[in-house]
Amino acid sequence: MLQPRSVSPFIRSANVTDLESNRRRYLRLVAENKTGASIGWASLNPYTHRCAYRGVADLSIFVARDARGTSVGSALLAALERYAKGCDFHKIVLSALVLNPHGQTL
To answer: What is the CATH number of the domain that holds 94?
Structure first.
């Protein structure tokens, strides 16, 4: 359980394993507030099907508007980083739009 400063969400795995063995490396996490409402999610996804990029994961992340600026995104990212290291990923990439300054700082 990770607890960022002001929201103190509980971060749980939404699905660690799929039926395909190669999908076990990709994780989805959900952040919940004290009442159990989802306030954010993040996932590791395949970057490409090419074998040369097996050590690279694509990052998707979302934080609810009212939970932004409370370290929820940082906690989700930190949890995914720890997991990724154990799955032999050496790089996590994120494509962020110019209009998304929070995403660009990740």
So the answer is: 3.40.630.30
